Amino acid sequence: MELKYYIIEGSVLPEVFKKVVEVKKLLETDMKMSINTACKNVDISRSTYYKYKDSVFEFYENKRAKIVTFSLNVQHVPGVLSNILETIAESQANVLTINQNIPINGMALIVISMETVKMTRGVEDLINSLRNIDEVRKIDILSRS
Fold first, then answer.
1. pLDDT digits (tens, 9 = 90+) for 53-95
2. Which residues have a Cβ under 8 Å from the Cβ of 115 and sit 6 or more positions away?
3. Are 77 and 107 found together in one domain?
4. Assigned domain for 1 exists
5. Is residue 60 part of a domain?
6. Which of 30, 80, 95, 125 could bridge to 135 as Cys pair (CB 3.0-4.6 Å)?
7. By residue range, what is the domain housing residue 33?
8. Handedness of CA 49, 50, 51, 54 (dihedral sign)
9. NCBIfam families attached here (predicted)?
């Protein structure tokens, strides 16, 4: 399934999406705050937060360094990491960190952080290209800054 991303002016969004972003900000600024407490502070349920937390992000237009961190669940096949890095390099993204866990039951988790300032195409296109690599089973965006 190809994901599509949209930039939507905040005043037309349902209030629940704004509250999810607010919870995420509270959790970023107060590392000791629990998800439950943050949800209570903005008056949304934890289930609502979990439902949307991976799909709703604030757009940071004024930040120079844009860093995206994502995880990939991949089949443990020789060359798959090389294919992933080649796809990223083709887009001119700057890889900052790579962490690959030991494969378990033929699957490995890879977490990659990259700088996107000089990319020649959008993050959405890159994610879709990575998703088209046969051995890639799942991709999740973990953070954007």
1. 888 887 654 344 588 999 999 999 999 999 999 999 999 999 9
2. 65, 66, 67, 93, 94, 96
3. yes
4. no
5. no
6. 80
7. 12-52
8. positive
9. PRK04435.1
